[in-house]
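Quick sanity check, gamma-glutamyl-gamma-aminobutyrate hydrolase:
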Amino acid sequence: MIYRSKPVVLMAADMRQIDGQTFHAVGHKYVAAVAEAAQAVPLAIPALGSNSELEALIALADGILLPGAISNVHPSHFGEDVLNPSLPLDPARDSTTLRLIDAAVTSGVPLLGICRGFQEINVAFGGSLHQAVHDTEGFADHREVDSPVAQEQYGPRHLVSTVPGGLLAEITGRSEFMVNSLHGQGIARLGSGLVAEAYAPDGLIEAIRISDAKAFALAVQWHPEWDVLNNPPYLSIFRVFGAACRERAASRSAK
């Protein structure tokens, strides 16, 4: 029997070089959002070395959060060459998350993807990405504003329209709301088994769900973790995710 006062949410870490050394890092805003908005225990996980470690982590998890990152998913995972070699990549994170997504869905672990995590889920299900949305005909520039001030970078940028009758529309209770925008890449071909849940005004997919997942499985292109407690649509996503994690924890406690 497993008993916990709060569910445990695993968060995929980035592999980063800082002062010549390798670190596994997760942004504080994601940690705070899991703790305060989802009311769960955040636990960062490094790149995995074996399938046995993957199994152990899935056994530990009541939920999984795939955070955003400065790096992009390597385009080899969707059959393309690197378009811009100056942009950062993180193969170690790719090897972790792409396996973790499949294991989470198979095991019925609640899953929330944000920005890079949103793109990882699409790629894991066989989808592809625009490597430069701003250079793709018909789409706006979705990158952050050029400012050193975080409040300006994460400020409202554009509306998203939720799909009528969809999960995100149900969660937020809204047909549209404003979101921030800090991404250069985005979904080109939607992965098999994924359903679009929201769109930007230019038609870019901004939210998806995994259609046959056994538990909550949603991902968004924007950053709902930012100032989450003061933004009702953002908060609603984390609240429902946290409830799904508690449900999994409770069901495992009963065994």
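Posting the structure with no commentary besides this: The chain has a mean pLDDT of 95.
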